[in-house]
Write a structure and sequence with these properties.
Blueprint (H helix, E strand, L loop, with lengths): L11 E5 L6 H11 L3 E3 L3 E2 L14 E2 L2 H9 L3 E7 L2 E6 H9 L3 E4 L3 H10 L4 E7 L3 H10 L4 H15 L7 E4 L3 H16 L8 H15 L5
Parallel strand pairs: 1-7, 1-8, 2-7, 3-4, 8-9
Antiparallel strand pairs: 3-6, 5-6
Bound molecules: guanosine-5'-monophosphate.
């Protein structure tokens, strides 16, 4: 039988969506169901919100500490969003990919673009859409966000929709369970993509050797 520990490259799955689309609930459910998937920990200069923990939700950094990491080239990508800076530390991501572990990123479209440029073969982009923009507004209103905040988020949503075609997949979050099934199917399919199977050359070489030992006249 073929050796069991067949290595595969890890994959960076980027989930993007206008806020209020249900991305956080979907990503939590996806992470719970999948032990080989973990969430990337970003660094940010924004202060922690209530209940957020350093090292768990974000690495909360001073501007000086963020600058120092930036100067040392320690970010795989970074972006300025609403006057604060956010970045993905490089080393943990590269280490996970090497071990064949997959990482889920909750970053904006700018981050997705830069990540894709940095790791062209390893990034899969998934855009989650609400059933409609009026439904999105209704969800934000139900959440009780203030009117000007809702308008700001709706404005941001229009901006993000301009980038939907840069993503590999689009999932409509009309029904939570159906959207989750679609996400799990994407993850499963990307894991068996031919280019990611580092063991394939070895498998083919062994297959040729087996055939040759059975019938040495075969080319
Ligand atoms: P929040 O401050 O609400 O946690 O996040 C604000 C925005 O920053 C969200 O759109 C989130 O996806 C994005 N974000 C969080 N971490 C990163 C990161 O490391 N890089 C980039 N480019 N965006 C990020």
């Amino acid at each position: 039988m073929f050796e069991a520990d067949a290595p595969r490259k890890g994959i960076c799955f980027v989930l993007a969506a206008p806020s209020g689309t249900g991305k956080t609930s979907l990503s939590r459910a996806l992470l719970r169901a999948d032990p080989n998937l973990s969430l990337s920990l970003s660094a940010t200069t924004r202060p922690p919100r209530r209940g957020e923990e350093n090292g768990l939700d974000y690495l909360f950094l001073s501007h000086a500490a963020f600058d120092a990491m930036l100067a040392r080239g320690e970010f795989l990508e970074w972006a300025e969003i609403h006057g604060q800076r956010y970045g993905t530390p490089r080393d943990p991501v590269l280490a996970a990919l090497k071990l064949g572990r997959d990482i889920l990123f909750d970053i904006d479209w700018q981050g997705y673009r830069s990540l894709r440029a940095a790791l062209p073969d390893d990034v899969v982009g998934i855009f989650i859409l609400p059933p409609s923009l009026s439904e999105l507004r209704a969800r934000l209103e139900k959440r009780g966000d203030p009117e000007d905040e809702i308008n700001r988020r709706m404005q941001a949503a229009y901006g993000e929709l301009d980038h939907v075609r840069e993503f590999d997949y689009v999932v409509l979050n009309q029904d939570f369970e159906a959207a989750l099934r679609a996400l799990r199917a994407i993850v499963a399919a990307e894991r068996v993509a031919t280019a990611r199977q580092l063991w394939l050359d070895r498998w083919l070489k062994q297959a040729r050797e087996d055939e040759f030992s059975r019938d040495p006249t075969r080319p």
